[in-house]
Task: inverse folding
């Protein structure tokens, strides 16, 4: 399939060469939010060396491959139809990788067992655009994240059509289980920044992790039984005491 290459400069060493497709959907081109997030990683704000990183909706793999050049062990994920493009870009840039990078199929909302344990970082660039994908995406985020996982979500704020409504709904749903912090513009890369492109630092709310929630429920169920036992031992009739 016909393609064209987008070069992404790096602070140290040769540029990334990212092949794109003239046809094939939104995942086949490098979007501005991907450039902004990739260059933000280069600022060193997040330590990536030897960290386990997973990119959702990777498309061309720009963000994940950049993370791999910074020493991270990266899994870039997207639908089956994007795997060939991801593999091409991994191959084209493998000489720049100082960590590791691989491509895997991950459909939002489906089983994520093979991607466990939870990664140190989850990267997302421009993943908020289809209303029907919000619930599956949020399920995948909840299934993938642990208490120490940092999610970096970069998105371009769009004002056309239903985009504002979709964006608002996404963050309302997200805040049920996650804490959100906007990274100030002055911490973005000096050149690759824009007033309408935002980076959010996202973590699970304390106690919202499924493992800890299950343990808390077990304690709640066990506590009444424990109290009854204590009472029974404390208030036995005097005649029965040894």
Result:
């Amino acid at each position: 399939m016909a393609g064209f290459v987008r070069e992404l400069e790096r602070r140290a060493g040769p540029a990334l060469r990212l092949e794109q497709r003239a046809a094939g959907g939104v995942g086949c081109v490098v979007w501005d939010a991907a450039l902004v997030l990739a260059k933000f990683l280069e600022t060193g704000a997040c330590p990536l060396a030897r960290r386990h990183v997973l990119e959702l909706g990777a498309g061309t793999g720009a963000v994940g491959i950049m993370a791999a050049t910074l020493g991270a062990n990266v899994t870039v994920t997207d639908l089956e139809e994007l795997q060939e493009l991801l593999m091409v870009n991994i191959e084209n840039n493998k000489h720049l990788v100082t960590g590791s990078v691989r491509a895997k199929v991950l459909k939002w909302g489906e089983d994520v067992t093979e991607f466990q344990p939870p990664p140190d970082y989850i990267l997302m660039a421009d993943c908020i655009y289809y209303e029907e994908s919000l619930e599956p995406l949020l399920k995948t985020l909840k299934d993938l994240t642990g208490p120490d996982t940092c999610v970096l979500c970069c998105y371009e704020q769009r004002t056309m059509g239903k985009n504002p409504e979709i964006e608002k709904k996404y963050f309302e749903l997200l805040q049920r289980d996650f804490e959100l912090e906007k990274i100030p513009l002055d911490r973005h890369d000096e050149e690759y920044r824009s007033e309408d492109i935002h980076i959010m630092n996202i973590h699970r709310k304390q106690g919202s992790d499924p493992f800890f929630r299950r343990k808390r429920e077990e304690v709640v169920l066990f506590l009444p039984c424990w109290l009854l036992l204590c009472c029974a031992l404390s208030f036995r009739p005097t005649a029965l005491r040894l």
